Amino acid sequence: MAVHSYKDLPSQGPEGLVVAAIPERLAPEDCLIMRDDGQPDQSPSGLKLEIDLRLKKNAVVGTSSERRRALLRSLRPDLQIVPIRGNVPTRLAKLHEGQYDAIVLAAAGLIRLGHQQKASALNLGRFVNLRLDPTIFVPAPAQGALALQCREGDRVIDAVAPLHDVSASGPVRAERELLRLVDGGCSLPFGAWCRRVDGGDLELMSVLESDGVLVRKSGRAENPDELAAVLWAKLSHTLPETPTDGTSLEA
C-alpha cells in the first residue's frame, strides 16, 4: 500500500492500482503566510481587501504553483510572484530571512506537520497566517485529502476500508473527475473545490486560466460524476486546442 497526497496523483492512475480509501479530509484551503511586521489591526471584510491591507505594493510572494500565481495576479496584479523550493521548514526560513514578503502554502500540509497547532515547532508566532477563501482562491483538486493506493484485488482493500470517509469521498471524487475530464494534455492553471450544501447536494467550483483570462464556473448536483460532467461542459469551450507535448494541467 502507498499513501499519497491525493492532489499530487495524476488524473489517470496506473493500470492495476486502485485508490482503496480516502481518509478524513483536512483543510483544503491555501494559506498566505507573511512575516509579522506590525500588521494592521483592521478587521477587513473580503479576501482582496485583506490581502491589500496585509501586503505592500509590489510585494514579493513565493510560490511555484501556476494556479496560485494566476489567482494572486487576479487579486493583485502588482505582486512580484517568484518561484520557491524546499520543504515547509525551508520555505518558512526563507520567508523569515526576508527573501520573500509572503509565501503560499497548503493549510493541510501545515496541519499534518503539526506546525499549525504547535507553533513552537517552527516559531510560527513570527508569521501572520491568512486562510484564503476557497470559493475565491480555489484550491487544487483533492487538496487536503490523502489517497490510500493498493493493487486491485489485494486483501489490503478490506484492511483499510474502516479508514474510508464517505463524507469526504463525494466532494473529492467530483474534483478528481473534473480534473480527469479537463486534463487533456494541456498546461493550464486549474483549480477545483467541492463541498456539501443544504439538502445533501454537492456544489463544485472551478477556476481555469486560458489565454490570460481567469474563467470561473460552478454547479450543483447530487452525483459527483454527473456534477463534474456539468462543469466540464461549461469549461470545455474555454480550453485551447490540445497540444501534443504531453504536458499536464498545473495546480
UniProtKB/TrEMBL annotation:
Pfam families: Porphobil_deam. It is an enzyme of class 2 (transferase). Keywords: Porphyrin biosynthesis, Transferase. GO terms for cellular component: cytoplasm. GO terms for biological process: heme biosynthetic process. Its cofactor is dipyrromethane. The keyword ATP-binding does not apply. Belongs to the HMBS family. This is hydroxymethylbilane synthase. It comes from marine metagenome.
